[in-house]
Amino acid sequence: MKDLPGESARMLAGSAGGNTNTTNDTSLLIDGLAASRILSISQRKLGQLVAAGAIPSRKIGALRRFSPAELKVWIECGCPTAPGSAMRVRAAREAGVQP
Length: 99
Prior knowledge:
mainly alpha; single chain; two-stranded antiparallel ribbon; 6% strand
């Protein structure tokens, strides 16, 4: 399935699937395929970044999920790839600090 123009931007903005809930940014979690499409990287590279602790994600049972809001902050922080960057990105998002 080919990405439609603007689809990634809509998903990052949290409007995928018509979800307009703006009070809770973590209400929408996406899978690795959607995250890799948003970031324009391969799923393999995404897995490497997750394993290094460079990109924020959540483990739900056996599944790995990503918050579009945290991905947006990760991008705004300059896409850091250093180990432990995910924790700093999540802390910046929770504190409301602009990168």
